[in-house]
Amino acid sequence: MQIQGSHHIQATRDQVWALLNDPDVLARCCAPGGAALEAEGPDQFKATVRVAVGPVKGTFQGHIRITEKTPPEAMTLTLIARSGVGGVSANGRIRLEEDDGGTRVVWSGEPQLLGMLASLGGRLLQGVAQAQAEEFFRRLEAEIVASDT
Amino acid sequence: MEQYFGKAVKRVEDPRFLTGSGQYTDDLSLPRMAHVAMVRTPFAHARIRRIDTAQALEHPGVVAVITGQALRDANIGSIPPGWLLPDIKTPPHYAIAVDRVRHAGEIVAAVIAESRAIAEDAALLVDVEYEMLPAVSLGSAALASGAPAVHDEAIENVCFRWSIGDQAAVDAEFDRAAKTVKLSLRNSRLAPNAIEPRASLAQYVRASDELTLWTTSQNPHIHRLILAAFVLGIPEHKLRVISPDVGGGFGSKIFQYPEEVIVLYAARKLNRPVKWTARRTESFVSDSHGRDHESEAELAADDEGHVLALRVKTIANLGAYLTLFGPVVPTYLYGTLMNGPYRFRAIHCAVTGVFTHTAPVDALRGAGRPEATYLLERMMDRMAQELGQDPAELRRKNFIQPDAFPYQTPVALVYDSGNYEPALDKALTTLDYKRAREAQAALRKEGRYLGIGFSTYLEACGLAPSSLVGSLGAQAGQWESALVRVMPTGKVEVFTGAHSHGQGHETAFAQIVADDLQIPMDDVVIVHGDTAKVPFGWGSYGSRSAAVGASALKMALNKIRDKAAGIAAHLLEAAPEDVEMTGGQLHVKGVPERGKSFSDIALQAHLAHNLPEGMEPGLEATHFYDPKNFVYPFGTHVAVVEVDPETGRVTLQRYVAVDDCGPLINPMIAEGQVHGGIAHGVGQALLEHALYDEQGQFVAGSFLEYAMPRADDLPLFEIDHTVTPSPHNPLGVKGIGETGTIASTAAVANAVIDALGPFGITHLDMPFTAENVWRAIQGGKKAVA
Is B220 in contact with B539 (CB distance < 8 Å)? Predict the structure, then answer.
């Protein structure tokens, strides 16, 4: 499965970059109220996310690792998260482009569902994954707005 | 006396099944029973770095958590395959993975708790750290260079390379053939989906050091043998395996599964009963799957359409581990069936068995024969299409003639009997073939697309002559046992090594006994599925119950009758050869009014006050019957479908089946088997697909994604029979449990391709879902995941 998109944020690349490296911000953006992200080491985070999508409900425990980064332009990351109902493994890329006084976040990823998550409705979940990713960047934008005020 | 053989007697087991009073493994409950939940890996391939069970063990109500290392430390062995081939790779298969997992759903730990709910909750607390590794799910992809290795000892993931037939002879025929056709065919993977999920309950009695296993098995003696001798290393007489009511097997309950090992180990270790029952989601990823072939086939014929030679190369996906029948299904139960009912000069079939990161593959209803029939019947249709000949007539002209038996095929089998044209003719008459073709032509002008598809199948079942299968690599015999025990009151207990998991042995076998001993069916009870009661037997699969199991019964009954006649002769002061049995009485020929009933004789046998000189008391006989050959059912199945070109939806309009399984013991049971078999095969053609994505994730793990055929997917079947008895068994019977599945997939596929002819489509892989058919009509690619 392949998901991708882009999102304009009215902030500089440095501002966006800083947010993308802040565990608290990321936690809020992943799932407001239901996520915890803690640094495990340089560019490594441990994540706990509560998810409820259709029949899939559970707490996912995972690890996010930033594998490459070129501040404030691009990063690649890997994610692996599991729960009792299966898991997800993903590679992702984020590129920050200067865009009309702001920043265009261009993102793509290949989430792979694991276990029961794949076998129960997995084929329906691409749309959900795409929507979740878009939601993440909308929340990131909201963080910028919030930090401005 | 009432004649039972051939009569549609209502099944004696049905009242308990229909009123919910059957006793299935999960219905059983024992004092102090604990429950298991399996921790299954979500990864198709991963290294296990660490398993932390501490949190699960702290969970209230948890009794124990078992890991693969604990089983290894206790010297619990690997689960062996039941059939070996030359140079086969047999990597170990431990009940719980130790350092690597090789398919999504493999067990990494077992949590045992006071209740099932607690066990399942605590299973979520077992913390397993994995290192995810690349995986491969498709057979051909596993053979590609650089593919991830499933087992280190299987180079390029090859488990075996096997072939049958004369390759040079095939090449020579192709050189001189007027016409050749070629197809690449996929035979899709199926999940078995027995209505009763697998379940196992183990009990340990410390005083006697005995284990009892209740389990959903088609072959409890095989389980006991494997568990005792190979896996647990305990004396065979200290393990009793009981397979009570079982709700369908279809091949998926042959295999010695890991879960059975786990409950036995746990019951002994904890000294309390332990039960596991699969959830349906577990069944999908842990039951043995079926089929999954990728094949290249070429068929050569002369310019009149007489077939000359067939060349087949198949990649058989075996899954991550070998099962009991895994190696034999795509080889000796597949390559040997490539001849069908036709006259071939030469056939060559080469099969590569491949390990992949998917659930293990084993027998599934038909087991190799549906795959062979699908391939051969698709090729026959393709040839008819190429030559512009009628597919029914092309088949007819290639049939082996009734005077040609015994018939040696180029692929090892010797057909002992057959008469194929009457079945074809019956089917054509029932269908009114000429009118069906006229209707097809007329509707095409209206933009409606009907297709008519044939499958003039032949199968080999009634597994099997022991010395023959032994020479081919079987690690087992294939005879069957029957013990007939007559009680002093003339009631009869039959203990059969065959096993019923829905087939109706309690009825059909009792019919045979009642006829032979001229007693009411109510006086007979059929006992099966308990190693402590029944003599060693090999269970039921490969349509062997009637042909082998009932033959054993018939032979044992002959011994009973002989002894009864001897007692009657003695009491009547006549010679045994002058005694006959009519109207339920043993009497001197011509003197029926002075006779002894069977129950009189039974009583005298037990009282033993007045028996012939030297005769042992009692009335009991055992027979171990080893068949001389397979039996060879055959028939013609015809499917009529309509394809909606706008949506791609396929509707099965009519289905005609004419089968020859020899004499029918119980026509109603046979009809039920044909119905179920057709539905099963139609399911593969139109709906079902046990699909893995390229990374080895199973993406069809519920009935939302895995479409089983339902009543409204099927028309009323039009079924009939011809009767060509097996010449070598005492009842003349052949098998009927798998014919429907063997024949119907090909018939429906040929019908769909026939309907799609106007679109220039000559082949399409199953399942013919609306999406796949629509895409084919649009000229697009077949849909995947």
Answer: yes
* Class (C level, CATH) for B479-625: alpha beta
Residues from chain B that touch A111, judged by Cβ atoms under 8 A, are none
For B144-174, what is each residue's pLDDT tens digit? 999 999 999 999 999 999 999 999 999 999 9
CATH number, domain containing residue A123: 3.30.530.20
Instruction: Choose the CATH number for B290-463+629-784 among 3.40.50.1370, 3.30.365.10, 1.20.1250.20, 3.90.1150.10.
Output: 3.30.365.10
Of B132, B285, B697, the CB nearest to A113: B697
Distance CA B148, CA B356 (A): 9
Average the pLDDT over B379-397 and give the result: 98
- Which residues touch B237 (CB under 8 Å, ≥6 apart)? none
Torsion of CA B368, B373, B374, B377, to 10 degrees: 160
Question: Which residue on chain B is closest to A59 by alpha carbon?
Answer: B124
DSSP H or E run through A63: strand A56-70
Domain at B14-22+34-133+193-286, CATH homologous superfamily = Aldehyde oxidase/xanthine dehydrogenase, a/b hammerhead (3.90.1170.50)
Nearest to B659 by CA among B436, B422, B460: B422
Q: How many domains does chain A have?
A: 1
pLDDT band at B218 (very low <50, low <70, confident <90, very high): very high
Average pLDDT over all residues of chain B: 96
Instruction: Show the domain range for A122.
Output: 3-148
> Within an 8 Å CB–CB cutoff, is residue A40 touching chain B?
no
Contacts A–B by Cβ distance under 8 A: 60
Task: Parse chain B into domains and list their residue ranges.
Answer: 14-22+34-133+193-286, 290-463+629-784, 479-625
**What is the pLDDT at residue B782?**
45
Question: CB of A118 within 8 Å of any CB in chain B?
Answer: yes
Give the tokens for residue B689.
């697909």
* Closest Cβ opposite residue B697 in set A80, A83, A114: A114
Interface of B with A (CB under 8 A): 40-43, 104-105, 123-124, 132, 281, 284-285, 693, 695, 697-702, 704-705, 785
The DSSP H or E segment spanning B514 is helix B505-517
The 3-class secondary structure across B92-125, one letter per residue, is CCCCCCCCEECCCCCEEEEEEECCHHHHHHHHCC
Residue B784, pLDDT score:
41
Q: Helix, strand or coil for residue B389?
A: coil
